[in-house]
Amino acid sequence: MLRTALCTPHGYIRLRLGLDTRRGEEQWISDALESIGEPPVGEIRAPGTVEGGDVIILAGTVAFVGRTIRTNEEGVTQISSLLSTMGYEVRILYLPDSILHLDKVLMTAGPTRMLSCTDYIPNESLKGFEVIDISCEGGSSSNIICLGDVR
């Protein structure tokens, strides 16, 4: 999973990882993305931190941003501003420290369909989407791969 950059139809946003020992990976992926013609459209600056597993873009119009132990409040503010400028409706979800990333409790299952751990994601946050509720009791999490439009 690409946790060091967020690719959008407009270009990529260079992220700043929350784990100190992983800092510096952002430059490597930026160089790689630019070498294939992907334009930079923004970056997260210190003291903000955002990891790719905490941002989910769905239906091309809504961006879910998780506030986690790896994505701090300043990072949420910065990524929300960048995504809003691109026209996304940003929905912020606050998760407990026991959840490493948003994509552990919320996954896409199609263009407008989501798999959601009901223990952590309030249904009102998912308004406008078809939601498949699952329980994540006992430390399990959502984990699917969407191969296309599931009907």
Give the SSE layout.
Blueprint: E1 5-8, E2 11-14, H1 25-35, E3 40-43, E4 55-58, E5 62-67, H2 73-85, E6 89-94, E7 106-108, E8 113-117, E9 130-134
Parallel strand pairs: 2-3, 5-6, 8-9
Antiparallel strand pairs: 1-2, 4-5, 7-8
Shape: globular
Order of strands, widest sheet: 1-2-3
Q: What is the CATH fold-level name?
A: L-arginine/glycine Amidinotransferase, Chain A
Overall strand count: 9
Euclidean distance between termini CA atoms: 25 Å
Q: CATH homologous superfamily - what is it?
A: L-arginine/glycine Amidinotransferase, Chain A
> What's the helix-strand series?
EEHEEEHEEEE
Low-confidence stretches: none
Instruction: Return the CATH architecture.
Output: 5-stranded Propeller
Largest sheet: 3 strands, mixed
Describe the model:
This protein has 151 residues and is α/β, with parallel strands linked by helices. It is built from 2 helices and 9 strands. It has helices at residues 25-35, 73-85; strands at 5-8, 11-14, 40-43, 55-58, 62-67, 89-94, 106-108, 113-117, 130-134. The longest helix is centred in the middle third of the chain and has 13 residues, at 73-85. The model has no long low-confidence stretch (mean pLDDT 89).
Which characteristics define this entry?
L-arginine/glycine Amidinotransferase, Chain A, 3-stranded mixed sheet, 151 residues, 2 helices, alpha/beta, 27% strand
Briefly summarize what is shown.
This protein has 151 residues and is α/β, with parallel strands linked by helices.
